[in-house]
């Protein structure tokens, strides 16, 4: 079946360093969404990418959708302690979401 | 504020004792989802209702059932909870338009943490 993998699984960075997580699907996706889940919280929607090669920015966050619509990345510039959490991509195929395995980010002050 | 509400936030049940988790939404979304999330894992889709149509995931155990009596409410029934069913259960909603070609943003409730003794 369809799988969505994320790397790395964990990432520790010093505050102010950059961070990137990569999302790879075994099949072509209709669109991809990114969610952030704080420790003890629930997933919160960040952004959706629909078009091949699409790039979107939200302040320090940059999201990309691959040309083949099978991979995506999230890049955070100059991390802050408020960025701590697990970042999930969620790919959608023909009829449902598949969540990626997640990348847990820790930011050291 | 429009939102997704889950009750209870914490549920303790005994091994084999049926339990029902509830979800309500004020967003008037036509799709409601139930996910199971175990510690340090991604949310795993159990099933979803697209309007009144129930869609079960192939690997969802028969022990898990769902009901959606109306647009606003959806229930997750665990008929005979086992120790392996201890997890966070997340309800989510989205507003979908058929044949649009992609799926919309999901709005998650705060979750119900289930403990099985």
Give an overview of the whole structure.
The complex is a heterodimer of chains A (109) and B (117). Chain A is mostly beta strands and 109 residues long. Chain A contains no helices and eleven strands. Chain A has strands at residues 4-7, 10-14, 19-25, 31-37, 44-49, 55-58, 61-65, 71-76, 85-92, 97-99, 103-108. Chain A is globular. Helix content of chain B is 0%, strand content 50%. Chain B has no helices and eleven strands. Chain B has strands spanning 4-7, 10-13, 19-25, 31-37, 44-50, 53-56, 64-67, 73-78, 87-94, 107-108, 112-116. In chain B, strands 2, 4, 5, 6, 9, 10 and 11 form a seven-stranded mixed sheet that branches. In chain B, strands 1-3-8-7 form a four-stranded antiparallel sheet, with no helix packed on it. Chain B is globular and about 45 Å long. Classes of the chains: A mainly beta (109), B mainly beta (117). The interface between A and B is medium-sized, with 23 and 23 residues.
Largest sheet of chain B: 7 strands, mixed
Count all strands of chain A and give the number: 11
**How many β strands of chain B by DSSP?**
11
Percent of sequence in beta strands of chain B: over 45%
Please tell me how large the radius of gyration of chain A is. Answer: 13 Å
């Amino acid at each position: 079946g369809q799988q969505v993998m994320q790397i790395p699984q964990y990432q520790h960075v010093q505050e102010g360093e950059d961070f990137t997580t990569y999302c790879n699907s075994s099949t072509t996706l209709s669109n991809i969404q990114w969610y952030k889940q704080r420790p003890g919280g629930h997933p919160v929607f960040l952004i959706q990418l629909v078009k091949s090669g699409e790039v979107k920015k939200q302040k320090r966050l940059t999201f990309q959708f691959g040309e083949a619509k099978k991979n995506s990345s999230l890049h955070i510039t100059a991390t802050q302690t408020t960025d701590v959490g697990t970042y999930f991509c969620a790919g959608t195929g023909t009829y449902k979401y598949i969540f990626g395995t997640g990348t847990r980010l820790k930011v050291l002050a | 504020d429009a939102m997704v509400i889950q009750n209870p936030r914490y549920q303790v049940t005994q091994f084999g004792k049926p339990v029902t988790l509830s979800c309500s939404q004020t967003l008037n979304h036509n799709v409601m989802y139930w996910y199971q999330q175990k510690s340090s894992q991604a949310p795993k889709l159990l099933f979803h209702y697209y309007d009144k149509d129930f869609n079960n995931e192939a690997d969802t155990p028969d022990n898990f059932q769902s009901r959606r009596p109306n647009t606003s409410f959806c229930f997750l029934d665990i008929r005979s909870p086992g120790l392996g069913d201890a997890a966070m259960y997340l309800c989510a909603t989205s507003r979908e338009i058929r044949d649009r070609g992609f799926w919309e943003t999901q709005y998650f409730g705060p979750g119900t943490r289930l403990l099985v003794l």
